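Archive entry. Fields below.
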Amino acid sequence: MSVGRRSSATERLSVLVAVLSVPAFTGMWELVARSGIVNTVLFPPPSTVAVAVLEWIRSGQFFADLMASLARVAAGFAIGAAGGIVLGILTGRFRLVSSLLSPLFHILRPIPPIAFVPIVILWFGLSETGKLFLVVWGVFFTVWLATHIGVQKVDHGLIRAAQMLGTPQSQMLWEIVLLGALPYITVGLRTAVSISFYTLVAAELAGAFAGIVYRIEIAQQNMQTGQVMGGLAALGLLSFVADRSFAILAERAVWWR
Amino acid sequence: MTPRLLRPDQPLRLVDTYPPSAAARQAIIRVEDLSIVFDAPSGQVIAVDRVSLAVAQGEFVSIVGPSGCGKSTLLNAMAGLERPFGGQVLMAGEAMRKPRPEIGMVFQQPHLFPWKSVRRNIAHGPRALGKPKAEALRIADGLIEMIGLTRFASAYPHTLSGGMQQRVAIARALANQPSVLLMDEPFGALDAQTRAVMQDNLLELRERINATIVFVTHDIDEAILLSDRVLIMSAGPGRILRDLQVSLPRPRSSAIVAEAAYLALKRDCLDLIRSEGRRAFEQMEIKT
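PREDICTED_STRUCTURE:
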C-alpha cells in the first residue's frame, strides 16, 4: 500500500513538473534576453515574439498564411497517401506489379524531396503545382512502403479463410488485404504527416506568395527576428496539432482494437 | 526433376482395406492417386504419396496421423488450396483446382476477420456470394443462435475466448451451406476442457446439418468419438495405412470412451500408429 502511495506522489510531482516545464523555460529565456548578455535584435525575448505574433494575427495575414500552408499540406498528403495506398496494395499483392515498380520506387525513395526543389522550379516555376509535387513526392513513398510491407504481413490464414468463403478478388483486395494491412498503413500515414511538413518548408522556401514558412523568410529579410520566431512557433504548433489529431484518428481507423 | 518415389513404373498402391462398395459409388469426395510435392531447401519433399480415398455423402471421416504426415496437406488439396503434383481431387465429380464456396473449411486457428463483429463474420460468406445484406444477416443470426452466442453477436473476435472464436469459425463456414465441411485440427489449439465441450457440440451439430465432414486430427480419441471412419496416415511420405470403420452407435457422447468396443478400436489404432511411428523414426535416424 505504501508503495502505491509513494508512486502516486511521484506521479503527482511529475505532472506538476510537466505543467511547469514550458513556462519555466520561457521565463528563463525572457530573463536571459533582457539581462543584456545577448543581442536582443538577434535573440528577442518571448514578450517581443508574442507582440509580433499578435500583430501578425491582427493584420489578418496569419489566417491567410495558415490557410495557404494547410491547403498545400492537406492536398499533397491526400494525393500522396491515396496513391501510396493503392500502389502499395498492388505491389504487395501482385508479384508482377512489384517486379515492375518496386525497383524503381526503391531507387527514388531515398532521394530527399528537398533535393528536387531546383528541378521543380524549372518544371513548374513558382506555381502551386510545384509545391504540391514536392509534398506528394515526400508522402507517397513513405505510405507506399508502409502499405507494401503491411500487405505482405497480412495474416495468410485470413486470406485463405476469405478464399474458402468465395470472396471475389476485388473484395479480397479492398477489404481483406486493405484492412489486414491497416495497422501498418496508419503507421506509415502518421510518419507521412511529419514528412509533409518538412517538404512544405522546402516548397515555401523555394518561393511562394503566402504561407507560414514564406512569412518566416520575409521576416528574416527584414530582420524581424520576433516574427521569425513566432513563425517557427506557429509551424511547430501546427505540425504538433496535426500529428496528435492524426494519432487520434488512426486509433479510430483501426476500430476493432 | 521427378522425385524418385514417383516413378510411373511402380505399381499403384491404393488403400489396402478400402472397400469399393456402395459407399464408393455414391462418393461425394474422391481423391484419386493424389501426390503433392513441396520444394524444400534440401530438394523436393513428397508430402502426400499417391493417396486414394472416397468419402460417401453424409459421412464423417477422420484422418489421423503424426504431425508432418501430410494430413493437413491432403485436406488443403481437398479444399483447392493446394495443387496436386499428380492425381486429382474430385468433389461431386468436379476436379478441385481452386476453393469453391460449397466446400467449407475450418482451420486450426479461427482466422476470424478481426474488423468484423461475430454477426458480420458469419454473414461474410453469403455476402461474398452476392446474397442481399438482410438475408445474409438472417442466416448469420440463425447460426449464432445455434452456436449459443446470441449475447455476443455484435462482439469483436478478440473479445471472445478461443473456444467461442472457433465456434464462430464453424458457423462462418456453415453460412454458405457447404455440402462438404473440411476441418483441420479445429480443436487442436484449445484446452482439454473446452475441447471436450466442442466435441460434444460438433456431435450435436452433426445431427442437425447434413454436410459430409472430413476431420483432420492427431488425437485418436477425438477421431473415434466423432467419426464413421478413421483413416490412419503414415509419415514420410504421407500414405494412408488403414481405413477403419467405427461402428459404434449414434448419437454418441464423450461417455463412449469407457465402452469395450471403443477401447478395442483405440488399441488397434494405437498399435498401428506406434509401429508406424517407430518405423518412420528409425528411417529418419538412418537418413540423418
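CURATOR_NOTE: Chain A touches chain B at residues 155, 157-158, 160-168, 171, 176, 179, 182, 255-257 (CB under 8 Å).
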